[in-house]
Each structure stands twice: as C-alpha cells, then as structure tokens.
Amino acid sequence: MSDRVTAVTDREPVTGPGQPVGPVGPEGSVPVTEGADLLTEVRSAVARYVIMPSSEALDAVTLWIAATHLQPAWQHAPRLAVVGPAKRCGKSRLLDVLHDTVHDPFITVNSTPAAIFRSITERPPTLLVDEADTIFGSVKVAEKNEEMRGLLNSGHQRNRPTTRVVGPEHKPTKFATFAMAALAGIGDLPDTIMDRAVVVRMRRRGPGESVRPFRARRDTPILHALRDRLAGWLVPLTDTAAGWEPVMPVEDRAADTWEPLVAVADLAGGVWPDRARAACRVMTAHEEGQDQDTGLKTRILTDIRAAFAGYGNPDALSTQSLLSALNADPEGPWREYGTSGLTPRGLQLLLKDYGISAANRRFPGDTQRRGFTRHQFTDAWARYCPRPEPAPPTGR
To answer: Where is there biased composition of kind Low complexity (predicted)?
Structure first.
C-alpha cells in the first residue's frame, strides 16, 4: 500500500452513530476485491469529515462518488440531493469532499445554464451545486431559474439535448445535458429533481458526534489520491459497466437512478452488492413517505388491507366498520386525521385518485349499508403497496 493511502487509513477513526470506518462486514465472510477495498477506503474518508444520517446514506454517497468516474457507461445520471432542515448540517462540507473525489468537478455556483451547456462533453464533468435553495427556494426565484431546472431534469437521461440559437446567423444548435450532479441546499428541491435523485437528508451533529476538520492543504492531496485510484480502477471497466444490467430491488425511475450505484457495487464485489441494494431499498422507501399527501394515500391502502385481514378478509366491509378499525389503530395517523378522526368524507377523498368509492352493499342479516368490497382494492394494493418479496440474489 502506498504512503499516500497509509495516510488515510492509519489515522484514528472519528465516528458517530452509523459511521463504521474500515472493513465492512464479517472478516473473511466474502472475497474482498481491489475494488471492494477501495470503496471501503472512500467510505472511511467520507465518514472522517462528515456525519452522515445513516449507514445506508454513507454507502450511497460512496457509490455515487465512484459512479461519476464511469459516466460514459450510464444510461441515467443520478442526482445526489444533499438536503437539510437548517444551516450547519454538513451539506457544504460533504460537497467539499465530493469536489476532491468525483470525476472532473464543475462548481455551478453563479454559473449560467449557457456556460454549463458548453461544458458538458462526451465525458461530462460532475456538476456540484451548493446553496441550491437560493436557486429554487421560492416560486419567484425558481421561475427565473427555470432553465437551470430544465437542464438538471433533462440531464438525468442520455440523449436529451437542449437546443439553443447561437451565432450571428441564429443557427439552432444542440447542446448535451447528460451529467451527474450533486445539489446541496436547505429544504427539499423541486419534486422533479428529487424524483431523479438519491436523497441524503443531513442533520446537525448531536452530542458526542465529532468529525475531523477539513483542511484543503492537508486533506485535498489525500482525497485526490483516492480519486485517481478510483479512476484507475473504473475507467478500464467502462465497456463492462455499459453492458451490465444489475438485478434491482426497485422499479421505474428509482431503478434508473440507483442502477449506476448498484452496478459499481457489483463491479467491486465483496460485501458491496448487498450493501448497495440494502441502501437502495431503505432510502427509496424512506423518500416515498416524505410527501405527506402521497404518503397518506399509500398508507391508507396498506391500513385498509390490514383492516380487512383483521375482520377475516370478508368479501365486503361497511364504511362504519372500516373506519372503526382505522381510527382504533394506535400506530396509525387516522385518529388524529381532523378533529374527529378519519370520516367517511376524508376516506372518500383519500381513495378518489384510485377510483375507489363506497356504495350501498348488502351484508349478512339482509342489511344494507354503505361499504366497500375487497375486490375494489386488489388492483391498487398490487400497484402501490405490494407485499415485500425476498431480496433478489446479488451474485454476478
């Protein structure tokens, strides 16, 4: 091992909760490759300077850093949304570490979209946007930066160029937009960006949590050494990565966004394929519940399924019986949904987008009441809250 690498690994670990440093997983439990070892070193370096919100977030950032060195291989360029509720949550410090470890960093603070268009090539830079809340923080400001938002959205997928009129002849010219990007800011970014991002929700350090101060003169050469080793390992694997289709634990846009990270983990081997898929599942599931309205609309389906099961899965339930079960659940949000808990009207509004509504039904005892059939929910359950399946195999 070189002297430069020893400088990274020989320091005493500085950690907080969820901040393991050094080899990951039981020693000798899986073969450790050069790539797996290198990812572990990068993970330790990130944890040295930044308290991450979870072990999964630390894994995701490590894999995102590595994936920037293989951008020509990817069909999608995942965004990394580094957001927090207030100042001093470590967002800018994480961007400092990214700047010294990712491929060809391009700081976009005060850069115009036109300048960024002209900087994206076949081997694109990695866009780093600090204080993104000043770009998208209010409707008025966001409207002025609509072009930047469009650039970040279109650049998530390959072959989505933007066309601009240039030169004295006003000739329409296409500019590439495809590039990985990390954005740090207070509060959530626009939904269209968050939906294309690996979201890391930072928080302030708690009592007893400490990190090593970042000093550019001392630490940048160490991080650059890791960056160069990442490039040396990954760039020769570009064609292999381009043809690799990893088994994903999620679907649709979430799979598009996480696929480069999982692919890097598969290329590294060792414990990283399992860690990558675990991070993908946990962090994607967490984000699905962040939008309160969307989260409640999914939660109501899950809780209605539990209510039917609690009554023995009858063919139909009256609205009254269903609401009684929902409002009685001490772990559910429904007893505090409004001043009187969830009402028939509230239930109707939550189910409206699914095309599900109550109707007059005949129940045992030849009584007729408003209610729902179990069959009404089977399609929505399958689409929006399928029951968990065993994790897929990760072997290459």
So the answer is: 14-26
